[in-house]
Input
Amino acid sequence: MTGFTWDWGEPPDPKFWQLLSTVAKQEKWAVEHGLLAAKIAGLIARALTFPDDQVEQVSVAGLLHDVGKLTLPASLLQKPKPLTEDEYAQIQRHPSTGARITVAMHLTQGIIEAIRHHHERVDGKGYPFGKAGEEIPVEGRIVAIAEIVSAMLTPRWYRPPLSPASAIERLRSLAGNVLDPELVKAACFQLPKLFGVSSLSSLTLCTKVVPLERLVRDEEAMLWRTVCVFVRELLVEMEQLMGRQFCQAFVGWLNQWFSRQNIPIQFRDLNLVSLHRWWQTLGDLTLFAKTLVGVTHAVLSHLVGAAFVADWLDSIRSQLPEQADKVGLRYGLWVWRNDTADMAVSG
Output
């Protein structure tokens, strides 16, 4: 099985990833859910022979389809019991809220309308408008499929994830009433690529749940490597600038912080070492990475001055491989940057 790869290249804007990371604070699987929906939406768009720019727009809509949940409380999104009528009405507002957020981000109309309509149904029983059939923009009908398949493959508070075979069976059962039947056919034709198999007949034999990390492992690996490389470069320079004693004291303090947070990692010769995969979701890893960099920035700023530390950290960034810097931007790791801080506040 292959890892997660993008159908249309690098995601075009770090703000998208930071928004997903923020949603993940309220809904645990938000990052994986958005990633998988983006990939599936892109695969369907490819099957329909959309031009590259439209494939990208549909994929971005899949990535961001749930950003409207930023305004919903975690207690509602994580409620283990059935929702009340009022609570369900709150949930139903998230497509419209998501559309307003993407309007404010100056995204394209195709992305905005896909997000606004991703919970409409072809039988007219969806929300927020109750549109039916081709009244629903095709981008919205595509993202509706991508959202549902991604939701099947990611855990929820009320059920475990489904296997690929179960997801395909469930998807087909929704064709014609909830989902556009022609688009479902296109989705089924393309879905084997998501799992690294060659045909739908092979996919229907996959009756075991696929761990999420196998679908997003490339993202996890890149993020973990970026954190390790950045922290290593920081500590090497710290030892040179401030002396070995200062550096060892700082590493000791970080090791104690890891222990207090029950995170099974430690430093060995200035290298960050993880004994095993201790995070449950990509969102967990993202939150850890941002917190680690944020704590490091805050402590060093207190000790030696914020202006000096910001310049110093930027110089370390400039020495990173280009791919690592892109990953850091994508996930909002460079917390001392004013534009990154502004994006986090606005999210």
Observations:
- The chain has a mean pLDDT of 87.
- The chain has two domains: 14-210, 217-346.
- The first helix runs from residue 14 to 24.
- The chain has 18 helices and two strands.
